[in-house]
Design brief:
Layout lengths: L2 H32 L7 H14 L17 E4 L2 E6 L2 E7 L6 E5 L2 E5 L36 E4 L2 E6 L2 E7 L5 E6 L2 E6 L29 E4 L2 E6 L2 E7 L5 E6 L2 E6 L29 E4 L2 E6 L2 E7 L5 E6 L2 E6 L7 E2 L4 E2 L8 E4 L2 E6 L2 E7 L6 E5 L2 E5 L25 E3 L4 E6 L2 E7 L6 E5 L2 E5 L16 E5 L5 E5 L7 E4 L2 E5 L20 E5 L2 E4 L5 H11 L6 H5 L20 H10 L7 H9 L55 E7 L4 H4 L14 E4 L7 H4 L6 E3 L8 E2 L3 E2 L4
Parallel strand pairs: 39-42
Antiparallel strand pairs: 1-2, 2-3, 4-5, 6-7, 7-8, 9-10, 11-12, 12-13, 14-15, 16-17, 17-18, 19-20, 21-22, 23-24, 24-25, 26-27, 28-29, 29-30, 31-32, 33-34, 34-35, 35-38, 36-37, 38-43, 39-40, 40-41
């Protein structure tokens, strides 16, 4: 007899002998258990045993499907089974004994069903194990050896590359949780309502194929997950410990809920996968995103501090994102100033005690008092609005006085009694030129006011003085012009062209998002126009004041600035602390106006045939440093105009991304980009706040210095980091 044949017969006899031994043991156990069953149920239990023995031939695994791993145990249909020589053998028939089969530390055991009356009816409870067919060893998905997880109320363990049921917590009156990277059974405590909380925790550790950074953590579905061997695994299940998951100092941790039970679900949406952002960033820099401090680590943005879950807000303090406590106040409205100290989004409006408020620089500010007009405030389709309530129509005597009629129409000119040449600006007469101060007189010729020397009044009566210009090509290849009389600074002529206006997520200068009012990105055609090369300086604005009698910048505003209003010493610094109305009057005095948003953005970016040609900053790249722009990390104060000419736009226009932010002509519209015309858009017809563009000397260039960045402010307000430049009349 060959050795192979001998081994075959020996193996067969061993299996047969073992089967006979197990069968005898089972029959003895069953016989003993039958003696404890009531007389009326003896025959029924015997029938169940005979039926079971007939269906579970220990020499065949045909009824059990696939093979098994040697020594493995399972519970199947209330029966404890053992794998021997790739055959499932019956260890113990728990169902016949009136018990349930449960997996405890990898072993199939029969357990008493307890004192519950509902479980004593073996007829009605015979299906309670039908959902436990978690056949160990049959999961074909890969796993890491000895790793554990919670699935369907049980601990599963990875053995030989397959998941097996290791400990059935729910059948022991316990619950399965993951703590410190291991799934374990723990006591339910005083809460019976939590016994089903494990049914949805099949967060299979080690099966996430997305890459991650070793030992990095995150909050997901109320649990701490940790990156191990390039895979996310459940490390600590906070919600099942009565805690909540937060990110603090770059690490996800379980934190006590405190006195608030309503916060237990706040972690379900925090799958902020740290380390997976492929966008570049500056090492160590921080940003605020949805009240989460994000930090740049190894070229990736990671969650660093979860302010919201700490009851705080994310704010910038001296150039760094930090969690800031809102204080003990129940309301965040400053009733004295009408200013909301909470955060809001651009374009938001609301009613506050019948005051109409708009979101300006991240805060709600009262811009209209509806009661002062005899009206109330309500939230309309397009935002908050003042209206007359149906039951409170104003009495005749209570009607607000009509606004005074406009003094003049745009384009009109006149000579005042005081000898000033006056032009009509915003419906009011504005001093344009001091004829008496120049030793001249003001005369009106064919509707045009002008200053002339008195002896020449008749000779010049039919001739208007002509403004002349000198123009040359600049180093960028565009016409750069100046007025021959020296009024105003140099300006550049921008040819007719087409560009893509708005934000592009893929080319956004390192910023992870586009603001709501910056998209959709849309194509715009612009006619030829001219715009100042530099921001308007203190000296230029002082000339305007001297000639027109216009008031100077707000001194209170300048007291908060790092430089003084001194047009002699600081002649070349950009003028700041002027309102939108101040800026508009200056530009109209030069014969132009403030640039529209579209003109400003095309001046910043240049023309583009394809929206993928988009670049975030005026110098034509998505990167920035202090050699290109003056922002909060650079000088700490405004610089002379033209100091950062290396960061000029494609046309040679300087300081569009820094130094001071700049007023634009347009009213702000949150959804204006959805309806913006293709040709020469000028913004909404009406509004509450005006738009300004560009970053100031103390601003974050990555956000505000982008060509697409939009900000808004009350036109009657001024800031110590805001100035302007003008759209100039074409010189030819």
């Amino acid at each position: 007899m060959s050795r192979d044949v001998f081994d075959f017969f020996l193996s067969s006899w061993r299996v047969l002998a073992y089967s006979i031994l197990v069968t005898i043991t089972l029959q003895t156990s069953v016989s003993c258990s039958k003696g404890t069953v009531e007389t009326g149920k003896e025959q029924e239990a015997s029938d169940q045993e005979n039926k079971f023995e007939k269906e579970t031939d220990p020499h065949s695994d045909a009824d059990l499907g696939q093979g098994c791993l040697e020594g493995m145990q399972i519970c199947l249909d209330g029966v404890a089974r053992l794998c021997r020589s790739s055959v499932w053998l019956v260890l113990e028939n728990c169902k016949v004994k009136g018990q349930i089969c449960a997996m405890i530390h990898g072993e199939a055991r029969c357990l008493s069903s307890g004192d519950a009356d509902t479980d004593t009816d073996t007829d009605t409870d015979t299906d309670t194990d039908t959902d436990t067919d978690t056949e160990t060893g049959t999961d074909t998905s890969g796993c890491t050896e000895n790793m554990t997880k919670c699935t369907d109320g049980a601990v599963q363990k990875c053995v030989s590359g397959k998941w097996i049921v290791w400990d059935e917590c729910d059948k022991q009156g316990k619950k399965c949780i993951v703590s410190n990277g291991q799934a374990v059974c723990v006591e339910q405590g005083d809460s019976d309502a939590d016994t089903d909380t494990d049914t949805d925790t099949d967060t299979e550790t080690g099966t996430d194929t997305s890459g991650c950074t070793e030992n990095m953590t995150k909050c997901m579905n109320g649990a701490v997950q940790k990156c191990m061997s390039g895979k996310w695994i459940v490390w600590d299940e906070c919600d099942k410990q009565g805690k909540k998951c937060i990110v603090s100092n770059g690490q996800a941790v379980c934190m006590e809920q405190g006195d608030s039970d309503t916060d237990t679900d706040t972690d379900t949406d925090t799958d902020t996968d740290t380390g997976t952002d492929t966008g570049g960033c500056t090492e160590g820099s921080t940003v605020c995103v949805d009240d989460m401090v994000k930090k740049c680590v190894s070229g990736k943005w990671i969650d660093w501090d979860d302010c919201l879950k700490q009851g705080k807000s994310c704010v910038f303090v001296q150039g760094k994102a930090e969690c800031y406590s809102q204080g003990d106040a129940d309301t965040d409205t400053d009733t004295d100033t009408g200013t909301d100290t909470g955060t809001c989004s651009k374009g938001d409006t609301r009613c506050d005690r019948d005051n109409l408020q708009a979101c300006i620089s991240g805060k709600f500010v009262t811009i209209v008092s509806c009661p002062a007009q005899g009206k109330a405030c309500r939230q309309g389709i397009n935002g908050a609005e003042c209206y007359y309530p149906p039951d409170a129509e104003p009495e005749p005597e209570a009607e607000p006085e009509p606004e005074p009629p406009a003094e003049c129409s745009p384009g009109q000119e006149q000579c005042s009694d005081q000898g000033y040449e006056q032009h009509c600006i915003l419906g009011r007469w504005s001093n344009w030129d001091d004829c008496i101060g120049k030793g001249k007189i003001c005369i009106l010729v064919q509707g045009d006011a002008k200053c002339v020397y008195e002896p020449d009044a008749e000779a010049d009566a039919d001739e208007k003085p002509e403004i002349t210009y000198s123009c040359n090509l600049n180093s960028h290849g565009y016409q750069e012009c100046t007025r021959d009389d020296g009024i105003g600074g140099p300006f550049i002529v921008i040819p007719q062209g087409t560009f893509w206006m708005g934000c592009n997520y893929d080319q956004n200068g390192g910023l992870l998002y586009c603001d709501t009012d910056e998209f959709p990105q849309h194509q715009v055609n612009l006619s030829m126009f001219a715009i100042d090369k530099h921001e308007v300086t203190q000296a230029q604005y002082k000339s305007f004041m001297d000639i027109t009698g216009h008031a100077g910048p707000d001194p209170t505003c300048y007291s908060a600035a790092p430089v003084d209003w001194d047009p002699v010493t600081n002649a070349s610094l950009p003028v700041m602390c002027v309102t939108w109305n101040d800026a508009a009057e200056y530009c109209q005095w030069l014969g132009g106006d403030l640039p529209t948003e579209a003109q400003w953005e095309m001046s910043c970016r240049g023309t583009m045939k394809d929206k993928d040609d988009y670049k975030a900053f005026p110098w034509g790249t998505n990167k920035y440093d202090c050699s290109l722009a003056n922002y909060y990390q650079c000088e700490g104060k405004p610089l002379s105009v033209g100091a950062k000419d290396s960061g000029a736009s494609p046309y040679g226009i300087t300081e569009l991304a820094g130094n001071v932010a700049e007023w634009c002509l347009d009213w702000h519209g949150l959804k204006y980009y959805d309806v913006s015309p293709l040709q020469d858009p000028t913004g909404p017809d009406t509004g509450f706040v005006k738009v300004f563009r560009g970053a100031g000397w103390n601003s974050e260039v990555k956000d505000y210095g982008r060509c697409a960045g939009r900000q808004l402010e009350n036109p009657n307000k001024s800031q110590a980091n805001m100035g302007f430049r003008c759209r100039r009349p074409l010189p030819f």
